[in-house]
Predict the 3D structure of the following.
Amino acid sequence: MINACICTIGDEILIGQVVDTNSSHLAVALEEAGVRITRMVSIGDEREEIAQTLRKELSRSTIVITTGGLGPTKDDITKGVLAELSGSKGYVEHAGQLEMIRKILAFRGLDMLPNNRAQALVPDKAEVIVNQLGTAPIMVFRNLFGGTLYALPGVPHEAVGAIPALVEDIRAHQALTHICHRNIMVYGIAESALSQLIAPWEDALPEDMHLAYLPNPLTGIRLRLSIYSGEEGEQHARMEKQLSQLKAILGDKVYADGDSTLEETLGEIFKTNNLTVSAAESCTGGEIAHLFTSVPGSSNYFLGSVTSYAISVKENVLGVPADVIREHGVVSSEVAAAMAEGVRRLTGSDYSVATTGLAGPSGDENNPVGTVWIGAAGPHGTQTVRYQFRNDRKRNIERFAASALDFLRRFVLADLNR
Amino acid sequence: MINACICTIGDEILIGQVVDTNSSHLAVALEEAGVRITRMVSIGDEREEIAQTLRKELSRSTIVITTGGLGPTKDDITKGVLAELSGSKGYVEHAGQLEMIRKILAFRGLDMLPNNRAQALVPDKAEVIVNQLGTAPIMVFRNLFGGTLYALPGVPHEAVGAIPALVEDIRAHQALTHICHRNIMVYGIAESALSQLIAPWEDALPEDMHLAYLPNPLTGIRLRLSIYSGEEGEQHARMEKQLSQLKAILGDKVYADGDSTLEETLGEIFKTNNLTVSAAESCTGGEIAHLFTSVPGSSNYFLGSVTSYAISVKENVLGVPADVIREHGVVSSEVAAAMAEGVRRLTGSDYSVATTGLAGPSGDENNPVGTVWIGAAGPHGTQTVRYQFRNDRKRNIERFAASALDFLRRFVLADLNR
């Protein structure tokens, strides 16, 4: 596998003003093409720092990709540094990019100013890939300190837009190995317990296969299995074999084979089976509805929800009996069940899910902070479950909501498998 | 100003599966404390690469901060590399972190597995700052190749949660120049328009003062004014003078003096004036309720909400008349008003806010994607407003919700100033 380094140039990233998303887009595309990213570096708009970093990275990577520093303003100095590094004797105007600059300015109804035209100038040692989305050309410097350097603009949609041409150029000039990746989505088990559970399987993986754990409070743990050698067809067969063993170990803790979220997985279940759903939320305060509706097309199965923060709303809107609340407390199995049944009745949905708990900062007389009761209701009855998390309000809201989605998933699947 | 390097360790970033947000959070906090970030580096879970990179960065920066690679699984090797680099003779169990691990597991109702307990082991040359939010301890290695190394967990809320302790330790051990920062929160104006509006004021700022624009779809634009020289007392007086000029220019576009969010600002208004609020959401799908309830103590003023995704829920739960929907369409001023009035009636709140619009991916026959109608209702009547955004579902949901909160803020303040 050939190695690459992604180098982001610009002060705005170093002071935290901008989160660098270009690098991860580039990494996904390159990894899929069979290029291994060995490091990402962010540096400021400083001549000596840029020159030193690029020289160093070019000498140890086959490819270095820079983003940023190509704009028309005074603090953008990358092009000048590249002219020096490449030993260019001067600048030449690139006709294709100049034409593109002309088009872009005409579209915006602007005249061409000298600093717009200067954007089409490139060091004479550079090859140019015309930037179809902006004024700064994409430059390629081959055989520079032992590597190839691609200079991309920093504006996110221009950098992302340059990826297909970049990958095409790399394919044309490098012999790439094929890497195979697959994801399995897991919910309802802690990372440490998961690691222990699958240790025998993981330890027996062949040398060229690698498993990564990617935990996220809203999606559980994404397990990514990668194969770094062999032919494409044979890779798929080996992958399939290992994954089927892994899935057998994990059982219904696996909620999706491939990249997905709980709300997308649930959405598929509802859509496929022509079912509708609603939610009644207390402690999750709208997060479950937000997750459901973050999926495009969710209006086909998500009817709506009630956030019943006040007891009066639980009673008057959801119809939770006042004596149930009095007898069992707001955070109870009985109230979770009554909320789920209430919103199901109110919206007429096939299924519903409800949460009542204490996200924090404090608990109440009966329950510690981090307690949640989840209820799920459907045509065959109602079930509830209790979970206990910790004292981090933001985190608890996410965990409560994700746990509720997973509980509902198991509840609906059990019905469908009746 | 002392220099620092932030080093992110983990394959998941290099293959682009995860966007590194920790570095920008760290950068903002360190910059505010008077530490200059000179580079950010991301490397994989590879022993030699980690060792070489850390040695290099420690030799040229006063501080190196790593995030990631401290988990309990086999691919997390940072701790081992740090033990080697620091010349530790072995590992010692840190009682404080072990206690925290015990608490976390007990709270979740989990048994302590050997790999949980192993999390409390640290190289004997490490100082420990107990991680209050997770099982992996924060480690400090002083005088390591000429610098100080802080090893933070990679899980975002743990990394961000570690920032106050990190900054405190840096302050205790380094002579930092005092930099004075103040934030002003602005909503309802684009960055370019804002920049144009305040250009005369900004251009007249003294040499040692700097203004940064930190835009965020949910909170608007945070304007951060910094003073890089002088004595603390004198800095505050100069800051006050400049900010009062800035606030006079911006008027009610400023929603908070100091770091805040729209939902926190609204919460303060409701609490101070003993008012309650509710929400009816269509296109924002629970995001407004989620924002309200993300504020601790919001149960004092937020009564609840209805997410009315289906028309039947708009009619049957919120009581929006069917003929209003038929006549004006679901995305209309009339429906936004009826939704706001409906949820206010249903919950008995003093104020309410409602949204109906098209977040995407597509528009309908009457409205392009990105259209939203917002309604606000209160004791003195109802008002609506229409906004038009672009074609990005996730972004639109955030922008719709934030715009609704800001519209409600102006609506309530106008009532209070009657």
Remarks:
- Chain B touches chain A through 88 residues (CB under 8 Å).
- The two ends of chain B are 50 Å apart (CA to CA).
- Chain B is about 40% helix and 25% strand.
- The domain at 262-416 of chain B is CATH 3.90.950.20 (Maf protein).
